[in-house]
Amino acid sequence: MADKMxxxxxxxxxxxxxxxxxxxxxxxxxxxxxRIIKLASNENPLGPSxxxxxxxxxxxxxxxxxxxxxxxxxxxxxxxxYSIQPEHIxxxxxxxxxxxxxxxxxxEPNEELLTCLGTFIGIYVSTNKQGRKLKTIPLNNYxxxxxxxxxxxxxxxxxxYLANPNNPTGSMFTSSEFESxxxxxxxxxxxxxxxxxxxxxxxxxxxxxxxxxxxxxLLVTRTLSKAYGLGGLRIGYTVGPRYLIDALKKMRLxxxxxxxxxxxxxxxxxxxxxxxRTAEENRNSLLKMKTKFDELGIKQVKTSxxxxxxxxxxxxFAGCFYENCLKRGLIVRHVKPFGIPNGIRINSGTEDxxxxxxxxxxxxxxxxxxxxxxxxxx
Length: 378
Ligand SMILES: Cc1ncc(COP(=O)(O)O)c(C=O)c1O
What we know:
By secondary structure, the protein is an alpha/beta fold. It has 14 helices and 13 strands. The chain folds into 2 domains: 126 residues, Aspartate Aminotransferase, domain 1; 221 residues, Type I PLP-dependent aspartate aminotransferase-like (Major domain) (Aspartate Aminotransferase, domain 2), CATH 3.40.640.10. A 7-stranded mixed sheet has the order 2-8-7-6-5-3-4, sandwiched between helices.
């Protein structure tokens, strides 16, 4: 029997899979709760863009047909919106799949991807899964340390991953910091700039819009999962110089992204009204959170995204806080696997969600902070 068994490669045996925010359905199965609020996955609380929903409905009758493998109409839409040549764009099945493809396309096994510890967990998982080495340096005051990243580059470094704004901290680096970094980074190191939360940061003074830059060693990834409300459809895109985009295109599945995702993305990208409402709802919710956290004396990191990271007194406190919120029907994210053991990330919600979430947080935090040994409530 044993000699017939397939050998699982060590790099796959070693993978610690990506664990997403707890789904509402899972918590509903575990606990008998009338109401569950999920502010754990940085989703858009307003739902999908209404224009995207309309486009999906109109397209469902055609799903017997394969999609245009080049996703030409979607590529044109992105090109027009951001004044980019279509040859510099490739669309994929969510940023997650684009990140995995980029790692494989532009590095060899055992070469190194360099980033900071305390960023998007998906990049750690992908790097390990593809058998590449992950090298991390600490964040500086919860923000990417671009100067130290430059110093950490070695002959083995093929890719540097930056997220701006960063997930889970919400911190942002500025145009001058980014430009100085790009001037100094070696030409043969690929800089991978993940702009999953760009739509929320656009109005921040000094925010460097990645697709407005032109470097031979820069790729920018974007997703429609966040501000455009299409997380469940899985769609994103990458922008960069043609020689890199041509190589990346070779990594795609033949009919990726799928038909409904393509039409939804085309419609969502033109739904300015939805984007304005999204930004406004986000601002209001985060302001309420900030005010309440200040009042409770909870430390927080300044955010430029659609979530805020609060800092608990210890890892143990954060773990119990997370569990106790769950028991009251609030799903937040304990970001220990991202590399911040005492961090809790909470994304913005609708007005009602925010009010109820803050009531739960106030109760849980208030109960726990007085205790010597933090307990899970029963
Ligand atoms: C920084 C960052 N990049 C990428 C992703 C994944 O995006 P997608 O849903 O397009 O795979 C996320 C999702 O949380 C993220 O926070």
